[in-house]
Amino acid sequence: MHPPRDTVSPKRSCPWSLEQIRSARMIELAPLLRRRGLTLYERGDENWEVREYHGLLLKASYWRWPDRNLAGNAIDFYTKVLGASFSDAMTELTEG
């Protein structure tokens, strides 16, 4: 059974286009995290470990944290690791 039409909230419009979201997912993480003051250690083959998040590895726009069974793209890093909202993540990633 569906709720009456007048009780369904309208979709919120997103201030970012799908192309901006796709681009933000692919932004290289190492330079951004260095600007935030995080320390990165090179692990070879352009892989980095983030000192402040023991065991968290990144390469280009992708990261994985095997100890916590987490992984994802640049937006996911901001939301899942740094605890930012999607909106805050997109703002920071697109300001670049």
First and last CA, distance: 46 Å
Radius of gyration: 17 Å
Shape: elongated
Strand-pairing-aware structural class: alpha+beta
Helix content percent band:
25-40%
Low-confidence stretches: none
State which percent range the strand residues make up: 15-25%
**CATH architecture term:** Alpha-Beta Complex
- What is the count of DSSP helices, taking H or I runs of 4+ residues? 4
CATH superfamily: Zinc finger, CHC2-typedomain
Please, could you describe this protein's structure?
It is built from 4 helices and 5 strands, in the order H-H-E-E-E-E-E-H-H. The chain has 96 residues and is α+β, with helices and mostly antiparallel strands. The protein has a single domain, classed as DNA Primase, Chain A. Strand 1 and strand 2 form a beta hairpin. The chain is elongated, with a radius of gyration of 17 Å.
Give the SSE map:
Blueprint: H1 18-25, H2 29-35, E1 40-44, E2 47-50, E3 57-59, E4 62-65, E5 70-72, H3 74-81, H4 86-95
Antiparallel strand pairs: 1-2, 2-3, 3-4, 4-5
Helix pairs in contact: 3-4
Index terms:
96 residues; alpha+beta; DNA Primase, Chain A; five-stranded antiparallel sheet; 4 helices
Compact description:
This protein has 96 residues and is an alpha+beta fold.
